[in-house]
Structure formats: structure tokens, C-alpha cells
Write a structure and sequence with these properties.
By secondary structure, this protein is α/β, with parallel strands linked by helices. It contains twelve helices and 18 strands. The protein has two domains: 93 residues, Urease, subunit C, domain 1, CATH 2.30.40.10; 268 residues, TIM Barrel (Alpha-Beta Barrel), CATH 3.20.20. Helices cover 32% and strands 18% of the residues. The chain is globular, with a radius of gyration of 21 Å. The structure holds zinc ion.
Length: 385
């Protein structure tokens, strides 16, 4: 229930799930929709696993009260870019995500022969929005996390198939990996044609899904934007004109800084010292672009790439947060990127990632305002799930 030592009683799960509403009295609330001021009456009424009311309405409900002295209540955060089949078993990675307090994850690709990750029975946290295997090139620039395809017709069919398989998003691999030998270069950028990307996006949209694009380098990212993807994953080596265009098109960006940091730190000694140095400079460039993107109004969303080299599920989200804060991104942007913005990208707005009536009551109690210090979410003193 509550893995952290605390003198506060954890919320009995029956209270969150059961019939009897409970009024939680906190020091402050973070994650109210459109919040600009501190909540005047920081109370949350929960029952049947949902938020039933907030503020005065919660206080006037007559429900039993539980005080959380000194604690701010916040919605559990989301990780919008993970690989549940990497870095452990599917089950252990879901457990690790739950232990870290995540409400939902977006799973973006795995080997075609593996089962598509799903939310566990009983709608238990974390909810999983999965792409199934990505859609990628069958030639140069192919990814082991994607089905190899060629030509618009195959991309269109594969996108339809993901909808039939009840995926929540379509993932395309529009470029290859970073070229560790040539700083600033990306292998196979672009890896897909404009026609293939357009076919995937059209079929996805017709079946009600959005498209997440693995893309680095200006050429691949430009093709993705023109095709109408919903998010750019990684997006290394982006400069001002493309970031501006992302802002104008309201395309989300998940810069996955922690993934590069893990490679630069190289815990398993996979890289040469020269490669590590180049990786550190790629990270520096990515952090500068991230800060620039914030200023240009790009919709930044937190996604860690958990499961990739050196990134454990669950806690990886907080490593990504730490990178953003070090880059100079404003704390309230980091908080929103891990909560309301991530929920919107996953199609879960109003369900998770915000404190509002009707949302799931997966709440964390932290000793301060996480909008000012989002890393407080990494060490909750109390949690409802
Ligand atoms: Zn990834």
C-alpha cells in the first residue's frame, strides 16, 4: 500500500474503492484544472475509487474526514514513453511502475512476436496505452521494436491492424538511431517515405488513433510533421524553425533526455570513452533545445524510455524530470508534462493526471507543492493506491 515510512495512516483501499466516501483534508492541492492560485479549501472527497468533489463541496458532504497534516495532494503522474517488454518481465515492469506511483504508461513498441501489454484485470494501476509493435522500415533503419514494412499500402494495413488489436496509439519508426561515431548525425533519417508516413497517419486517424513518431534529425522530423503525427519521440538535433513548427501544429515533444544520460553514464561499459563524451554533448544539446522549446510554447510531455539501457521502469520518470529541471525548464511545466499534458496525449484527460470531479482517485501526498518541486512526487509520504 504505502512503501514509504510515515506516521500517517495509509488510506485503506476499501475507502478508495468502497461505497463510503472519505473527505481528505490536505495542506494544499496540486493539479486542479487551470489552477493559478492556491486552493482556498484544500479538501478532496473520494469514494468508489473516484474523486467525487473538491473544496467547499467536499467539506459540506458530511463524509468522514481524514487529515493529512503538512501534505499536498497531487494526482499520480504518468510516463508517456516506456517499453514494458524491455529491462525485465512485463509483470515485474508493471509492478515497478505501480511501486513508483504511476497512474498510466504509454508503451511504444516491442518485438512483433510478443503479446501487446494491457492494463491488468480490475483496471488496476498503471493503465496501459499500447502501440503494439511499431511500424518500421524493412530495409535500412529497421528497428527490432517494429514490424518491417514497405510501401504505403502495407503501412495503412498495419495501422488498421493495430486498431483491430485494440491498441491505443500507432507508433512509427521514422528514423534510425543516433550515430555515435558522427556527432550530430542520425542513422537513416528519414527511414520512411512521406507516402508511407501519410498512409499510416491516415489509417490511424480513420480508426480513431493518433500516431507517435520515433524521429530524430531535421529531415525525418519534418516529414513526420507534414504527415500529421501527434507526437515526436526523442527528436534529437532539432533547431528553432522545426520547434516553432511543432508549437504551431500542436505536436507534443518527448525529448527522452534520461535515455541519453544513461548511455553517457554507461553503467555496463558498452561505450568507448570517446563515445561517452559524444553522448554527453548530445545530452547537452538536447537540454538546450528543450529549454528553447519551452520558450516557444511546444507541448512538452514527460516520457522516460523506461526499459531501454540503464533506465528502470517507474523511477525512470523521475530521472527524466531531473534532466528537465537541470536544463532549466520551469518546475510547473515539468509537473504539467507528467500529469495533465501526459493524460491529454494518452487520451485520458479528466480520468488521470488531474484533480477533478470524476477522475480516478489515485493520489499522492507530498510534503510541499509539487508544482514548485516536481521531484517531491518521487517520494510520497502517503498514497491512496
Ligand atoms: Zn522508446
Amino acid at each position: 500500500m504505502c512503501p514509504v515510512e510515515t506516521s500517517l495512516p495509509p488510506m485503506p483501499s476499501g475507502q478508495a474503492q468502497g461505497d463510503k466516501p472519505l473527505c481528505l483534508l490536505a495542506e494544499g492541492l496540486a493539479g486542479l484544472p487551470g489552477q493559478t492560485q492556491p486552493a482556498a479549501e484544500p479538501a478532496v472527497l473520494v469514494g468508489q475509487g473516484r474523486i467525487l468533489a473538491l473544496g467547499r463541496q467536499a467539506l459540506d458532504s458530511g463524509a468522514r474526514r481524514q487529515a493529512l497534516p503538512g501534505l499536498w495532494l497531487a494526482p499520480a503522474p504518468l510516463d508517456a514513453h516506456v517499453h514494458l517488454h524491455l529491462g525485465g518481465t512485463l509483470e515485474s515492469n508493471l509492478e515497478a511502475s505501480l511501486a513508483a506511483g504511476l497512474a498510466a504508461v504509454r508503451d511504444l513498441g516491442h518485438r512483433p512476436q510478443l503479446p501487446i501489454p494491457r492494463t491488468r484485470p480490475g483496471q488496476a494501476p498503471p493503465w496501459v496505452i499500447a502501440s503494439g509493435p511499431g511500424l518500421g522500415s524493412e530495409g535500412p533503419g529497421r528497428s527490432c521494436l517494429a514490424q518491417g514494412l514497405a510501401g504505403p499500402e502495407q503501412f495503412s494495413q498495419a495501422a488498421w491492424q493495430r486498431a483491430l488489436d485494440q491498441c491505443g496509439v500507432v507508433k512509427v519508426f521514422a528514423s534510425g538511431l543516433l550515430d555515435f561515431d558522427n556527432p550530430g548525425q542520425v542513422l537513416h533519417s528519414p527511414a520512411l517515405t512521406a507516402e508511407e508516413l501519410a498512409a499510416a497517419v491516415r489509417a490511424a486517424e480513420e480508426s480513431g488513433l493518433s500516431v507517435a513518431a520515433h524521429a530524430s534529425g531535421a529531415q525525418a522530423v519534418r516529414l513526420c510533421l507534414e504527415a500529421g503525427v501527434r507526437s515526436i519521440e526523442h527528436g534529437f538535433f532539432l533547431e528553432r524553425p522545426l520547434l516553432r513548427e511543432m508549437a504551431a501544429r500542436r505536436v507534443s515533444w518527448l525529448p527522452t533526455c534520461a535515455a541519453v544520460r544513461a548511455h553517457a553514464q554507461d553503467p555496463e561499459g558498452r561505450h568507448t570513452p570517446e563515445e561517452r563524451q559524444r553522448l554527453a554533448s548530445i545530452l547537452k544539446g538536447q537540454m538546450q533545445a528543450l529549454r528553447l522549446a519551452e520558450g516557444l510554447g511546444v507541448d512538452l510531455v514527460l516520457g522516460s524510455d523506461a526499459g531501454s539501457y540503464g533506465l528502470e521502469h517507474g523511477v525512470a520518470l523521475f530521472e527524466e524530470m531531473a534532466c528537465w529541471l537541470e536544463a532549466g525548464v520551469r518546475p510547473q511545466t515539468v509537473f504539467a508534462a507528467a500529469t495533465s499534458r501526459a493524460a491529454r496525449l494518452l487520451g485520458l484527460a479528466g480520468q488521470v493526471g488531474s484533480l477533478e470531479k470524476g477522475a480516478v482517485a489515485w493520489l499522492l501526498g507530498v510534503p510541499g507543492d509539487p508544482q514548485a518541486d516536481p521531484l517531491l512526487l518521487a517520494q510520497p509520504r502517503w498514497r491512496s493506491f
